[in-house]
């Protein structure tokens, strides 16, 4: 049967290990300046109409055409106030979800606008 001292050590060990890992991992925590602007304030982002407005995006970048399409064709990508896109930094799943949602909303708007003048179900029922 374990002694009381052994049980206390087993209870304290995870705390010590976690604290030591936490201290070493402090360098990886982003400063407030590195936090994504999307999460801080939506008005901090600047809508761009051309990918050339983003100073850190080059035509040789591997995702240039995709970014160009999202910016120029759909208008659903915003840059940072300093005129950058910061495409080489990691993004959170929240940022991805927000960006995807913005683009899907824009595509839905475009579809609705282009099909507004088409025949409705009520019109078909009358025929």
Description:
This protein has five helices and two strands; from the N terminus they run ααβαβαα. The chain is elongated, with a radius of gyration of 25 Å. It is mainly alpha-helical. It has one domain (35-126). Strands 1-2 form a two-stranded antiparallel sheet. It has helices at 4-24, 37-40, 64-74, 93-115, 121-126, and strands spanning 46-47, 78-79.
List keywords for this structure.
127 residues, mainly alpha, 51% helix
Quickly count the domains: 1
For the residues shown, what is the average pLDDT? 74
Which outline best applies? Answer: elongated
Biggest beta sheet attributes:
2 strands, antiparallel
Spans of 5+ residues with little confidence (pLDDT < 50)? 10-43
Quaternary structure annotation: single chain
What fraction, in percent, of the residue positions are helical?
40-55%
Helix/strand order, N-terminal first: HHEHEHH
Rg (C-alpha, Å): 25 Å
> Hey, roughly how much beta strand do the residues contain?
under 5%
Please give the number of β-strands. Answer: 2
Strand order of the largest sheet: 1-2
Strand-helix topology:
Elements: H1 4-24, H2 37-40, E1 46-47, H3 64-74, E2 78-79, H4 93-115, H5 121-126
Antiparallel strand pairs: 1-2
Write a brief structural summary.
The chain has helices spanning 4-24, 37-40, 64-74, 93-115, 121-126, and strands at residues 46-47, 78-79.
């Amino acid at each position: 049967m374990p002694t009381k001292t052994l049980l206390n050590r087993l209870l304290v060990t995870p705390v010590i290990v976690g604290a030591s890992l936490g201290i070493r991992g402090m360098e990886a925590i982003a400063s407030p300046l590195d936090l994504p602007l999307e999460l801080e304030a939506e008005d901090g982002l600047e809508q761009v109409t051309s990918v050339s407005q983003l100073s850190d995006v080059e035509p040789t970048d591997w995702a240039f055409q995709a970014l160009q399409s999202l910016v120029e064709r759909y208008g659903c990508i915003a840059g940072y106030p300093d005129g950058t896109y910061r495409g080489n930094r990691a993004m959170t799943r929240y940022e991805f979800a927000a960006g995807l949602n913005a683009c899907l909303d824009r595509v839905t708007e475009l579809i609705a606008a282009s099909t507004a003048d088409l025949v409705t179900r009520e019109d078909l029922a009358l025929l």
